[in-house]
Write a structure and sequence with these properties.
By secondary structure, the chain is of the alpha+beta class. It contains two helices and three strands; from the N terminus they run αββαβ. It has one domain (7-54). The longest helix has 10 residues, at 35-44. The chain is flat and about 35 Å long.
Length: 64
């Protein structure tokens, strides 16, 4: 069984970008400044049903 993607590393490496993850959530399939760009990169790698993440430009915590 494949190990799930480490989201903390994915976020840290892709601040302010869209990330396409494979449907099994084990690897990044595409990254882009726009959702369309990330989607196209994932499609070129053969991923038909990616999961998209919009990574914030900062990982600062907000406490209310």
């Amino acid at each position: 069984m494949a190990q799930r993607l480490k989201l903390e590393k994915t976020y840290r490496d892709n601040l302010g970008k869209w990330v396409a993850v494979d449907s099994k959530q084990t690897k990044v399939m595409g990254v882009g400044k726009t959702l369309e760009e990330a989607s196209q990169k994932a499609a070129r790698k053969g991923e038909k049903h990616p999961i998209f993440l919009q990574v914030p430009s900062s990982l600062e915590s907000i406490v209310l």
